[in-house]
């Protein structure tokens, strides 16, 4: 295992940019006799983009749901932005935005109304300002005024993702959780979406946690990658995780698609 590999918790001696905004300790999740997580530890650093990968059924969604307080773990503790997370209790939910896989937009509301809704529910902002804030978020995700007045079923898949992203940004979150953000998008739309996430991450000082199966996204935008294996997790910088000797990690990053994605990123970096 590479020396800098972060498999177990560390007490942070990093500078402020490496301050941990999410801290998971000793997480255990079981369903009957099936043990999904067994003492899992994870630190997410402020302002990083962390990709979360793993084989099917390794518990990526359960981990995400545990962090969001939507699933009650059997054991362990989770802290987000210095607040302990408890099942179905609000926690710092106004400081995070979530892009669920299907977008989860309300079908009876326009894009504009969907984005305004969290602002209306969780702030005292006057109506006019609320509209302006929602417009701003919609523009930031590259949608037009025309798209803002449409209903979700009148949008393309890529536009729906952008609308859902605008809603996730509605309350100016510090952390953005993305569940398979590029799933269902064609390669061009997926690359554009990666660029958008990267742009927003840098310009809004966001910490991004992204569950993905998209190897292009991993190499394009992730600072570190967390791999769920053996009911725990292995975390390392994107360029180093590929050298981790764990058999599943080797087979995942040794796959021709992953090799191509990595090479394309390396070529891109060299050209710059
Ligand atoms: N509510 C539940 N009841 C019983 N088993 C569950 C429940 N939720 C998840 N599981 C099981 O936990 C395991 C992990 O599920 P999870 O959805 O987190 O996997 P995943 O890594 O996200 O998989 P995929 O990549 O296929 O989406 C699976 O075997 C799943 O069947």
Automatic annotation (TrEMBL):
Gene3D superfamilies: P-loop containing nucleotide triphosphate hydrolases. Pfam families: ABC_tran. One of its GO terms (molecular function) is ATP hydrolysis activity. Keywords: ATP-binding, Nucleotide-binding, Transport. InterPro entries: AAA+_ATPase, ABC_transporter-like_ATP-bd, ABC_transporter-like_CS, P-loop_NTPase. SUPFAM superfamilies: P-loop containing nucleoside triphosphate hydrolases (SSF52540). The keyword Kinase does not apply. Residues 22-255 form the ABC transporter domain. SMART domains: AAA. This is ATP-binding cassette domain-containing protein. It comes from Elongatibacter sediminis.
